[in-house]
Amino acid sequence: MNKLKTLFIILGIAIVVSVYLNAVLDVSIRVFDPDELEHLHAARALNRDSIIYKDFFEHHMPLLYLLLKPLHLYLQDTISYLFSGRWLMVGFSVITCLLIFLICRIAYSSASAYLSTFIFISHFLFRHKAMEIRPDNVMIPAFLLAVLLLIRGEKYKSKFLFFLSGLFMSLAFLTSIKASYGIIGCFAAIWLNRKRYEHSKTIWNRIFFVGFGSAIPFLVTLGYLFKYSMVQEFFYYTLFINLKWQYNFQPWRSLSIVSMNDPALTTLLVIAWIFFLYRAAKKNFDNALSNYPLIIGSVILLFVLFLTPNPYLQNLSYPLPFLSMF
User: Fold this and answer.
1) pTM score > 0.70 for this model?
2) DSSP-derived secondary structure letter, 13
3) What is the C-alpha separation between 179 and 136, in angstroms, rounded?
4) CB atoms < 10 A from the CB of 261, how many?
5) Tell me: the pLDDT tens digits for 64-108?
6) Closest by CA position to 62, among listed 75, 53, 50
7) What is the DSSP letter of 284?
8) 228 Cβ partners below 8 Å, 6+ apart?
9) Res. 19 pLDDT band, cuts 50 70 90
10) Residue-wise pLDDT tens digits, 216-251
11) What is the 3-state secondary structure (H, E, C) of 75-94?
12) How many CB atoms are closer than 10 A to CB 268?
């Protein structure tokens, strides 16, 4: 039995790695999307003593540019700098796959962990978007780590893990404002599991420590903004400009594009999501650990489909890790 289990693990790892490597092969040959060049240029501007939001326009959150900044500092204005950003995204995609595996293993089972990781890297969205230089590709692993810590905090009743979860939620938000969809989902999951707690104060303790952890990176960022007198510019460009974005409500456009490129897998994921959500609701969400990915993923998917102004494909990359888990 142990030999069979070992063989299953080796085969699972081999299949996942081979499919992943196949997806990575085009990193150095694909045409750069204009958004990728925008992000690389913003990091370059920071190294030339320009102040983001104040000296040049940028409507994204700042964390990605701080990560790209050392790459430009070392490689300067070379072709290698362009591709180094993509290889950085490859590194984050590896972390994303590992976190999907770990979340599934603790919330479901080892078998589902291998299957979910395989489904994720097999999907059109992963092959098309995960290697591009985008805030989403840094935000997603940061948020998945927050979810993993949240689930482990629930399992071990650890205030420290809830605190760390909030910390990474905030870091995810400072990478992309879209992380707020998942953060809302996290608090919804905590609230829906309140009936499991022995004391009514338990839920407020969890919310407090998650909120406390979330506040620290945000307060550090505010301190930086005050130092350079750019608080007004920060909120104007990252919040109000994005809210003023021309509203082009087409929730099914992205789904149709994804479905045309990966019809069987996309259909399977949506059916699985509906089935598991219905089953969990019928049982009044009585399994806390498996509820977290389900509730959080559902909130993200609904926000992306019905509240995101423009139906860009990279927006659907956000719920994909959770859809892969069901």
Assistant:
1) yes
2) H
3) 9
4) 15
5) 999 999 999 999 888 899 899 998 998 898 899 999 999 999 988
6) 53
7) T
8) 51, 54
9) low
10) 999 999 998 888 888 888 988 888 887 776 555 566
11) HCCCHHHHHHHHHHHHHHHH
12) 14
